[in-house]
Write a structure and sequence with these properties.
Elements (H helix, E strand, L loop, with lengths): L1 E2 L3 H12 L14 H16 L18 E2 L10
Parallel strand pairs: 1-2
Helix pairs in contact: 1-2
Length: 78
């Protein structure tokens, strides 16, 4: 299983801030279209990565049973 932690929320918000996008906080991960786009692109890159040993894209690799993209996501505004 390949896992991704809730650091994705922090990373994508940071990437957007670094690019000059007005990000109010980590909650923008759920609402800001630019931040959401960064996350979508990040996952797309992960899925299409070619395993250097097997030459198979991760999305097509039968040895990957599951994907956990975010562990226990929370919106701080709740």
């Amino acid at each position: 299983m390949i896992t991704r932690t809730s650091e994705a929320e922090l990373n994508t918000c940071k990437w957007a801030r670094d690019a000059g996008v007005a990000v109010n906080g980590e909650d923008d991960f759920y609402t800001n279209p630019v931040v959401k786009g960064y996350y979508k692109n990040h996952i797309q890159r992960l899925l299409t990565r070619i395993n250097s040993i097997t030459n198979v894209a991760y999305k097509d690799d039968p040895t990957i049973m599951a994907w956990e993209l975010i562990n226990e996501p929370r919106c701080q505004a709740d």
